[in-house]
Every structure is written in C-alpha cells, then in structure tokens.
Amino acid sequence: MNNIELIFPEIFISLSIMFLLILGVFKKDSSKIIHNISLLVLLITTVITFNETLSVNPTILFNESIIIDYLSSFMKIITLMAAFVVLLISSNYLRTFKIFKIEYPILILSSVLGMMIMISSNDLIVFYMGLELQSLALYVLATFNRDQLKSSEAGLKYFVLSALSSGLLLYGCSLIYGFTGSTNFNVISSQFNTNEYAITFGIVFILVGLAFKISAVPFHMWAPDVYEGSPTSVTLFFTMVPKIAALTVFIRFLYVPFLNLIDQWQMILVFLSIASMLLGAIAAIGQKNLKRLIAYSSISHIGYALAGLATGSNDGIQSSIIYMTIYIVMNLGFFSCLLMMKRNNIYYEQIEDLSGLSKNHPLLSISLLIILFSLAGIPPLAGFFAKFYIFKSVIEQSMYFLAIVGLLSTVVAAFYYLRIIKIMYFDEEKDSYDKDHNLWLKLSLTVSTILILMYFIFPSELIDAVSKINII
Amino acid sequence: MNFPILSSLILLPSIGALFLFFTKSKSENKITTKYVALFTSLVTFFLSIYLWFIFDQTTSAFQFVEDRIWIKGLINYKVGVDGISILFIILTTFITPLCIISVNNSVTKRLNEFLIAILVMETFMIGVFCSLDLVVFYLFFEAGLIPMFLIIGIWGGARRVYSAFKFFLFTLLGSVLMLVAIISIYWITGTTDVVQLYELGIDTKYQNLLWLAFFSSFAVKTPMWPVHTWLPDAHVEAPTAGSVLLAAILLKMAGYGFIRFSLGLFPSASEVFTPLIYTLSVIAIIFTSLIALMQEDMKKLIAYSSVAHMGFVTLGIFTIQQQGIEGSIIQMISHGLVSAALFLCVGVVYDRMHSRLIVTYGGIVTIIPKYAILFMVFTLAALGLPGTSGFVGEFLILMAAFKDNFLVAVLASLGVIIGAAYMLWLYKRVIFGKLKNSELKKMIDLNRSEAFTLTCLAIPTIYFGFYPEPLINTIEVSISDLIDTYNFNVASKQ
C-alpha cells in the first residue's frame, strides 16, 4: 500500500476511539480525562490532515473507493475544527445536566469519523458506510439527555425518519448499481447511458436521502423537533457538522458521475433551494423557542448553500463552501450565546428570555447583535459576503429567478432576526444571567464575533483557500 | 496624493466610536464621552474642510482616488471625490457634530452607546459619498441601516419598534434588487468600478431593468411617493438627533445615487423613465404637501415636507440640464441644513413640554423670543424665500423644469405655494396667537448649546441664499461633464 499516509487521519481517529473506549471501561471517573484526550485527538487529527493531505494531488485509494483531494481535506479540516469547538464549549452544559459522561466525546469522535469517510468516499458503498456510522452516533447523541422526555423523543424521531431516508438512499444506490454495474463514481460516470430514466430515478432517491440529512425542504420536518429536544450542545453539533459532510457528498455525487445529467438534477436542486429559503424564512417568524428558530434559520441557510450547488459551476461550489464556512462561524457564535443564558443551573432558551439583555450584559448582547445582523446578511458583516458570493455565482448562470427569490427571502428572514434584536435591546430587562462562564465559551464567542465583524478587512483569505477546489 | 485622506475621513469616526466602546458608561463619564465624540467629529469636519480647500474645482475627474485590491480578482476598494460628492461629505461632517451637541437633553439613557451609533453612522455616510465601486457603495449604503435601526429602536418614542422595523424592512427590500443589479453589471461588463463603467458604458438592452433595480432602492430611500410611508413614522419616533441625521443626510444618499449611478451608468434608460420620475415627483410635491397641511404633529409635518422637497430634487435631477441638477444639489444641501434645523427646533420645544402636537403650543413668541426668531429663519428657508438657500435650489429646478416640460413645472410651482402655506400656518399656530396653555409660561429660552447649533445652521442657510457661488463653483464642472457624457451617450444610441 503506497499512499497509506493519506488516510492516517482516519486511522488515527479510529484507533483513538478504541483506546478511549477501553480506557473508559477500565478507569473509573474517567470522563474528564476522556473529554480532554478527545479534544487532543481532534486537534492532532486536524494537524495530520493539514500536513499530510491538504497539498497532495488528487489520489484515489483502495480500489478507487476513497478519494483524497483538496476538497476532501478542506472539508475534513472544517469538520474537525467545528467538532473540536463543540466539544470544547459543551462541558459546562453537560455538567449542569449531569450528563458529562465518557460516551459523549466518544460518540462525537465516531460521528466525525463517519463524516470523514463520507467526505472522502468515491464509492456508493463507502459513502453509505460513513453515513450510517455518523448517523448511528448522532441518534444516540440526540437522546443523550435521556432523563428528559423531549430528548428521548428527539432521538427516536430522528432515528425513525433517518432510517427511512437511508432506506430511500439505498434504494437509489441499488438502482444506479443495477443500471451501470458499479458503485464506483468514476466507473458510473463512464458507464451510464444518459437516456436511461432509471438512473434519474436513482439520482432522485439519493438526493432525497441527502436532502433529509441536510434538512432541506420538503424533508425538513424532523429538524425543528430534534433541534429543540436535543441537548443544546448536541443541537450545535447538528446544525453544523453533519451538514458539511452531506454537502460534500452532494458535490461529489452530483458533479463527478452525473455532471452530464445536470438538466435533470438542476431543477430539483433549484426547487430544494427555493423551498428551503422561503420556508425557513417564513416559518421562523412564529417561533418562540430559540432552538426551534435556529432550526428554521439553518434550513433557510442550507437553501442558500444549495443555490450555489445548483449553478453547476466551480464558482457555485466554491461559493457554497464559503457560505457553509461562514455559517459555521456565525452558528458557533450564536450557540455560545445560548450556552451563556444560564441562571441558577437552569438554561433558558425562549426568545422572551433574552428580554432586555443589553442592560445587564452589554458585551454579550452586542456580540449577539453582530451575529444576528450577520445571519440576516447585512453588510459589512461576514454573512453578507457569504450571500454575495452565492448570488454572484447564481447570477453568473443567469438564474435570476433563484437570485431574486433568495434575496427577497433574506428580507423576510431579516424580520425574525430583528425581532430577537428588538427583544434584546428595546424591551424591559429581566434578571441577569450568570456571568462566570467557562473561559472557552467566552473565547469562542469573542473569536467568532471578531471574525464576523472583521471579515471585510481580509475577504481574500477564505476565497484563496477555497479557490483550489476544482471538481469540474 | 500619498496620504489616504478619504480613508482616514471614513475611518476617523469609527476610531472614535471604538474608543468610546472601551470607556465605561457611567454617569460621571457622561461629559467626557460627549467630548470625545464631539472632538472626533470635529476633527473629521476640519479634515473635510481641508479636503474642500485643496480640492481642484477646475476638473471633473475624481480626485484623491485610492484604489486597493480588496477581494482579489473581484472587487477593488476604490474611493474618490468629485465636485458632486464633496459637498455631501462636508454636509455629513458638518451635521454630525451638531447632532452630538444636541443630545444634551433628548437622550438620557445609554448616552455612550448612542454616541457610538452616531459616529458609526457617520463612517457609513461618508463612505457612501466617497465610494467609486458599486459593491463598496452598496456595502456602506446598507450598513447604515444597522445603526439607524438601533437609534430609532432604542432611543425612540412610543411606537419606536414599529417604526424601526418599517424603516429597516422597507429599505432592505428596496435594496436587495440593487444588489442583483450590481452583480449583473459585474457579469455584463466584468467590473464594478464606477469610473471604468463610465468609460465602458452598459449595453442599452440591459439598461432598463438595471435602472429599475437601482430605482427601487433609491426610490425607497429618497423617499418617493408611494413608498414614502416609512419616513413619517421613522421621523416621528426617532430621537431628535436621529431625525436630523435621517433628514439631513440619509435621504441625500438616494439623490446622490440617482445622479451618480442612474444618470451616469444608464443614460438611455434614464431618458426612457424620465416621465415616470416626473409623474412621481409631481405627485410627491403636491400630494404630500397637502398631507402636510393636515398634520397635527410637528415632526410629522416636517417629515412630509421632506418628501415634498425631495420631490423637487428628483424632478431637478431628471431634467438633465445644468440648472436642474445644480438646483437639485443645492436643494439637497439646503434641505439638509434646514430640515436638520427644523427637527432641532421641534426637539427644543419637545424637551421642555414633552409634546410635539401643534395644539399644545401657541403664543410663545413673548416667552421664548430667541427661539421664535431662529425658527422663523428656518421656516422661511423651508418655504423657499429669496435670500435663503431654499430659494436658490427651487428656483433653479423650476427654471430647468419650465424649459423641459411646462405642465410639470406649473404643477411643481403649485407645490411651492402649498409649501408656503403649511410652513407659515405651522409657524403661526406655534409661535403667534393667544397664549392658551398656561404651562407654556414656564418655558425657558434657548440655552447656549441650542442657540449655538441653530445659529451654526442659520449662517450657511442665509449665506448660501445670498451667495451660492461657492457651491455652484464646486459642482459646475462635474455636472457639465456628466451632462455632456449623458447627451453623447443618448445621441449615439439613436
């Protein structure tokens, strides 16, 4: 095996998972150690990925079933970093609910492993394996606060619906296998006959399965309930990390074997995108729970990322990757605020609980203000640039309808972000929240706010990093 | 020019704001924070005066241009001024310190944050007038929504939430189409650099749609009838300083945008849509003047008069003649001074009586005579009495309009008469008449800072009324060049 070093990150992370499991079994009260080691593992894996694979030429391994290229390495690094931050800032939350257990970091590591496999997959079977690995870990994570009814409900709901979508996805895979004779992306692209409608069916089924994983409308129903019921730190994980992996598969699956069928799938993607943007924006207006609200907001953000993918151009792919990256930073900031809303060991998550926040917590509320305006896409904050790149690539393909609908739904979405700001700044204050937060929580809020605020000074860095992604 | 004078002009207020951000807002710090803000804005003002001083009036080319790569291969950060924009920059830097002086009584809570919002706002406003790249322009244009939303929402009156939302959503809705247009321009021509676009020109077949997209944004911001409804709400609820900024400068962004972008980039579309603008302008002038007659709230009355005055501005711009555009710019500057002063005047009596209703007042001329005199100056300037800056603008606009379209000009002149009616009636009801409300006797006359701000505004109003040469000299060359290019483009298309 020549290029074994290219999958060192995956090997390292799987060995660490096994080691941590054994450690957890034999050592009592080891949750803190395991938590810290997991952080270290994620950090080391990031470094390995960065050093070993980021700058290599595209390489195909293991009977052409794994692909290592810039896209996969870039997405892996984002996944790892996001998981690292989630793990870093969730410890206080878990302790409050007395669920600071050894399983939590291990489950996060296994789902990250699954995602890394998904991101690197060049074969339907490998992709499915990765998908199931990450999903199984996520089901357990959703029910992690098992003493609470809502958490169990969330996990069960997620499990049932997700299993259904996996079934659809598998059915699509089998259709494609049946009509091309292979599960390998490269072979499929050379084998299939464009006149064969069964392949289109296969693509549609797989798209449905993937749309479910990224909670795009009309396969979004699970998202608000699951996001609300899961522990907040898990919700944070849900809103960002699995979507990166699924988006990468979207790119890889649509653009490598089926670029010739763009006429067939472009329409579906445009529909998913428009429906997600609009529904996400409109349905969020009536929400009272911040986690539900952010669920709808994430649906609408996914709509924008899909708009980039629907263009069928390299520019579009790059813009939606930029979009996701900026979205993750904004989301981290938002959830850091959410994790700070604690008083007497109770976490508050209704919008009303933010009332008058600006008087007692001026710094927290100004950060949240910046994050919310950025989520709404108001310049000069990072969220604006994310949308700007998307619309730039959409308009390049003369998809004016998509662009105008997208921009109009930003106006609708601005309304509910403004409503939160209104409650924070214009309403009367309530009791203040705890101020002695975890250092890491404060740090992640500060860093993400500064990144959002100062993005306009160095906009080229991210573009440079992403511009090396060339799929077509 | 090696020293980046425009960028420092843009950044200076923000640096002041950053400084304020890190000072604790305690009550004993109030004076200090105010002086810091005032100092920052004054430095900005003097820098802009220096800019005017070294500005070369004989050329229409952009001066003090800075051009840096911002997003590689996509957008350059490009700023520069010509005769048109420099006046707006000075207006901005002139009004902001007066706003800061005027916060004395009206803003009682969270002074520190209020001043930060005002200074950040100043950065964005200067940025709008300097930017020579469409994306940079859009960035500043939209960014201004954030501080203004907060100014109205936090420090506003009873219905502040409704007004703030209405202001934000109306403007955002108008602007998103402009973003589509800007990106389309990028793909059509390959650049968003305004100077290059002037040279390249945009294909006629795209111009109409692009013009409409820009129009949707500027029409909301101007505001033109029928999308003006956010303005009275925003004005009534905003604190005095917010109203002043809104009326004096924010509305001018759209007028400036019409001249710089609609005329400059889409000449043949502007030709096509001139009747539309004429119609909307005339409706705005007459209709909103009539509405203003019926208002019981002073701030609302002045807000509607703003809509009418901006109607003259759009009318003047689209006459596309030297006098018309010159008149529009002078009208905008004059309206900037006068409406700012009128809102401050309302603020003065509001701070004392906590009522903006006209019926509350009456017969206060003997109680606060100094106020009565200054208020009169601005009332007369608002109705366009010769000898005030309001006259120069309106006169030039109407002159150009008569040359172009007799009917429109006659209708617009009718608006001038109604304008005189509502302003004089307002003055009569507030200042003269019998003293009915005995509480008015307790009112004290202008204090030092109020007298100072109002005098500062009165001097240029009267000075430019008698001697508008400095303004006209500054803008003349730029405008004649703009019109020449415009006529050349229109002629070459036919």
Question: Would you summarize the structure shown here?
Answer:
The complex is a heterodimer of chains A (472) and B (494). Chain A is mostly helical and 472 residues long.
User: Spans of chain A of 5+ residues with little confidence (pLDDT < 50)?
Assistant: none
- Greatest chain-chain interface? A-B, 30 and 34 residues
Lateral strand order in the biggest sheet of chain B:
1-2
> Uncertain spans of chain B, ≥5 residues at pLDDT below 50?
none
**Strand percent estimate of chain B:** under 5%
> Given the helix and strand composition of chain B, which structural class is it?
mainly alpha
Alpha-carbon Rg of chain A, integer = 21 Å
Biggest sheet strand order of chain A reads 1-2
Assign an overall shape of chain A: globular
Number of strands of chain B: 2
Number of domains of chain A: 1
Largest sheet of chain B: 2 strands, antiparallel
Mean pLDDT of chain A: 88
Beta-strand portion of chain A reads: under 5%
Number of helices of chain B: 19
Largest sheet properties of chain A = 2 strands, antiparallel
The residue fraction in helices of chain A comes out at over 70%
* Rg over alpha carbons of chain B: 22 Å
Q: Count of helices of chain A?
A: 20
Terminus-to-terminus distance of chain B: 41 Å
User: What is the residue-mean pLDDT of chain B, rounded to a whole number?
Assistant: 86
